[in-house]
Amino acid sequence: MQFVPTILCGGVGSRLWPISRQHHPKPFIRLSDGQSLLQKAMLRGAKLDGAIEVLTVSNRELLFKLEDEYREVNHAQIDTSFILEPFGKNTAAAIACAALHIADVHGPATILLILPADHLISNQAAFEQATKQAIHLANDNRLVTFGIKPDCPQTAYGYIEASKNNVLRFIEKPSREKAQAYFESGKFLWNSGMFCFKASTMITALREHCPDILSATQRCIEQSPLVKGRSFSQLALDAASFDLIRDESIDFAVMEKASNVAVVPCDIGWSDIGSWDAFSELLDGDENGNRIDGHAITHHSANCYIKSDSRIVGAVGLNDLIIVDTPDALLVADKNRSQDVKHIFSALKLQNHDVHKNHTTVHRPWGTYTILQESDNFKIKRIEVKPGASLSLQMHHHRSEHWIVVSGMARVVNGSEEIFVRVNESTYIPAGHQHRLENPGLLNLVMIEVQSGQYLGEDDIVRFSDVYGRA
C-alpha cells in the first residue's frame, strides 16, 4: 500500500536552549553519529516499503535548511515536497493542510503517516512492524495513533487508556501520583504524537468535529501558490488566510472527539528528547556517572552532563548539573530542573535578545555566515557561499564592508563595476553602494568580511533584486 510519510517540523524546543533556537530549532540538533533528528525522521519514513514521497510541513524560513539536511542523506533520491507555513498554528492546521494537499495530489484514499521531526526511534524494525499494523487499521477508515509502552511513571507525556487497539480515553499530562497509578495498571500508553490515516478519513473527521478549521484551511490552500519540479513541490501558504485558521492541536480538535480512533501499542525505542536530562541519556556515563559530549575535564564530580563543542570545560566538585557551552551562550542547570530551561528561553525572547533566535553561525539560502567578533563600530564575519549561489543585489546605509577571499573565487558587483576577486585578494564596498556577491566556481567560496560603521544591525539592508524572492 502506498503512503506518504509526513514530517511535522514545527516548534522551537525551548527546553534544549542554547543549542535549540528559533532559527535553528530542535529537529536540526546533531547527535553523536553526525545526523540530526530531522534527518533521522526523514530516513525513518523514506525507508518504509510503499513510501512514495516525503512531505514536510514547516516554517518557510527553514526551507533552505530543510533542503540542505535532506540533500545530505537522501541517497535513495525519494521525492520531497514541502508545505511552508508563514508562522506556527499548531498541529490541527498543519495536518489539515497535509491531508487536503495529499488528497488533491495523490487522491483521497492515500494514507498519511505523521511523524514529528524531533523524536528519536532506536528500533527501526519494530517501528516498521507498528507502521504496517497502523496502515492496516487506517485502511479500515480508522484514525490511528501510536501508543508507547511506558517504562516509568513519566509526567511529561500525555497518556492513552487502551484495550488492545481500541482507545478508551486520552489523558493530559498527569500528576506524579496518577502517572504512577497508570504505570502500575498496565492499561495506559504514552501518547507519541505519531498518527496514520487516509486523507479522506481525516478530512471527514475535521468536517465533523472542527469544520471551521477545515473550511479556513481549504480557503488558505486555494489562495496559496504551488510550485512543482521534477522531484519536489512547494506549497507556500498565504499568510493572511493562514492567520484565520484557529490555533488548536489535532488531539483536542479531532482525536479526543472522534469515535473511530485506534491505537497501535508499540515498543520502538521512542523518545521525544524533551530536555537536556533526556538528551544526556543518549550517551554512556563514565565511572562517576558523568556524560561528556565534546571537551571537558572533571574532578570529584558526579552525574553531570557536559556539552561543549569548542572550549574546554573544567568541572570541579560538581554533582547533578547540566552544562551546555556554545560560542555565545552558557547554560548551567540543576539536572532535576531540566524542564525549566524553557523559562530562560522565554526571558530571552521577551528581551528580544538575539541568542534566542540565532547561533553565531547563521544559515542563509546561499550558504552561511559566522560572526567571529564584534564591538561597537566593527563586526568580523566568516562568509561561505555555495557553488553557483548569489546574494541579493543590496545596499547598506550605515556600514562599509571589506571582503578578503580565503578560498574559491568571488564575482563582485560594486556600484557600476563588476570584478573577480581571487584568493588573497580583497575589495572594499563603501556605504551606500549597490553591490552583489556571487560564487561562479565549483567549490565553496570562503571569505572574511570586516564591517565598519556606526550601526551594524542585520536590518540595515535594502534589497533591489534577489533570486530567493526576498527583495
From TrEMBL:
Keyword Protease (UniProt): no
A GO molecular function held by the record: mannose-1-phosphate guanylyltransferase (GTP) activity
UniProt entry tagged with the keyword Transferase: yes
InterPro entries: GMPP_N, Man1P_GuaTrfase/Man6P_Isoase, Man6P_isomerase-2_C, ManC/GMP-like_b-helix, Mannose-6P_isomerase_type2, NTP_transferase_dom, Nucleotide-diphossugar_trans, RmlC-like_jellyroll
Organism domain of life: Bacteria
Family recorded in the similarity comment: Belongs to the mannose-6-phosphate isomerase type 2 family.
Name of the molecule in the record: mannose-1-phosphate guanylyltransferase
